Amino acid sequence: xxxxxxxxxxxxxxxxxxxxxxxxxxxxxxxxxxxxxxxxxxxxxxxxxxxxxxxxxxxxxxxxxxxxxxxxxxxxxxxxxxxxxxxxxxxxxxxxxxxxxxxxxxxxxxxxxxxxxxxxxxxxxxxxxxxxxxxxxxxxxxxxxxxxxxxxxxxxxxxxxxxxxxxxxxxxxxxxxxxxxxxxxxxxxxxxxxxxxxxxxxxxxxxxxxxxxxxxxxxxxxxxxxxxxxxxxxxxxxxxxxxxxxxxxxx
Length: 251
Description:
Blueprint: H1 2-15, H2 43-49, E1 63-64, E2 66-69, E3 78-79, E4 88-92, E5 102-108, E6 115-124, E7 136-139, E8 153-161, H3 171-178, E9 181-182, H4 185-191, E10 199-205, E11 209-211, H5 221-234, E12 245-247
Parallel strand pairs: 1-10, 3-10
Antiparallel strand pairs: 2-4, 5-6, 5-8, 6-7, 6-9, 8-10, 11-12
Helix pairs in contact: 1-5
Keywords: Signal
Signal peptide: 1-16
InterPro entries: PEBP-like_sf
């Protein structure tokens, strides 16, 4: 928890600093908003194209789930550099039932241990604007930074309509908060009577390399903070920290 607070504070300092545009290239820092053209595929097609359906989610969601980070928008499989994923904003679904209960699941399908949960919220009432503390927080949001060299990771956001309120103090859910891994997503949804997801979205990310090249010759403190944040969240080898940078530039 202390690490998460530190990460969010450091992220706010980095994302909010106007000096990040001081280099001719984006370097290892975050600059501006990542713009992506709206996908022309349907949600169902996107989930099939990325082999999420039927490998993990037997029936793909039909509706589009709006999801935004501080400097990027999720758009059915678009690539988002790791450092743009540390500042979640809102998730929105405009077809939700006024008196309904919903579960929002954010998962890494390519995590080290089966399906890794990035965050899990249950008993959400207002799905017009879901924030990381909406409903009952089962798994607190953790920045979804992939391990260095682990390749491209597919991350999915799934919204389920509950049959009714779910007891968030169940032992299995308390265990999940400490070890956020779901070995079998289908079994999990059946256990809590969630059915098929009503809405969804997905994106990809990858930590490409720790690179000793120095693209910014005159680094100010904001750029150094950005590099430090990347190293912390991506678990770069401690022996590399003094000499190497984590590269998180946009494609």
